Amino acid sequence: MRFREKTPSKSFINLTPLVDMLFIILLFFLVTSTFIDQPNIQLELPTTKHTPTSKVDEQVLNISRDGRLFFQNEPVERKVLIQVLKKAFSQQTEKTLVLRVDKNVPYGLVIDVMDAAKGAGLKKIVAPTIVDPEKQP
Predict the structure, then answer these.
(1) 80-114: string of b/e by CB count within 10 Å (b at 16+)?
(2) For residue 93, what pLDDT is reported?
(3) How many domains does the chain have?
(4) Is residue 25 part of a domain?
(5) Is 22 domain-assigned?
(6) Entry's InterPro entries (predicted)?
(7) Which range marks the domain in which residue 59 is found?
(8) CATH number of the domain enclosing 110
(9) Pairing of the two strands 124-126 and 130-131
(10) Torsional sign, CA 49, 52, 57, 60
(11) How far is residue 114 from each of residues 7, 8, 47, 56, measured CA to CA in Å?
(12) Tens of pLDDT along 103-135?
């Protein structure tokens, strides 16, 4: 009786399932991530406890900490704000302005800007905030 000698087989680890799983995890993180285009204007938005943030980002007016106005990331003087808003919203039926204001801006300035927006014929002003998870009940 003759016994054949078994040649040791080379074992290897198949990496295909590992690569597939890494690809799926990467895809999951890419799909669930949100990318928000924020202008280079440094604002510290106030936080809220119950109100979610707005997702409207069409016509944005920013008021920086030092009181400067930026409409669509372009500086605007307070004297010509009504004319700029009228021109920007002249062709739109949905007249909604997103007003992003630093939390340290004086309240009087915010009211002046809101009054100018109403004077330009805007129907709705949205003020986005940041929801603070620590303040939620």
Answers:
(1) ebbebbeebbeeeeebebbbbbbeebeeeeeeebb
(2) 73
(3) 1
(4) no
(5) no
(6) ExbD
(7) 47-131
(8) 3.30.420.270
(9) unpaired
(10) negative
(11) 85, 82, 20, 17
(12) 888 889 989 999 998 888 888 888 877 766 565
- In this prediction, residue 90 carries a pLDDT of 83
Tokens read off for 100? 């992003």
Establish if 6 belongs to a structural domain. no
State yes or no: pLDDT of 21 exceeds 90: yes
Spatial distance between the Cα atoms of 30 and 4, rounded to a whole number of angstroms: 55
pLDDT digits (tens, 9 = 90+) for 48-58: 676 655 444 46
- Measured in whole angstroms, the distance separating CA 34 from the mean position of its chain's CA atoms is 8
SS3 44: coil
Q: Can you give the C-alpha Rg of the chain in angstroms?
A: 28
Whether the Cβ atoms of residue 34 and residue 41 lie closer than 8 Å to each other: no
- 58-90 per-position pLDDT tens digit: 688 889 888 899 988 889 998 899 998 888 888
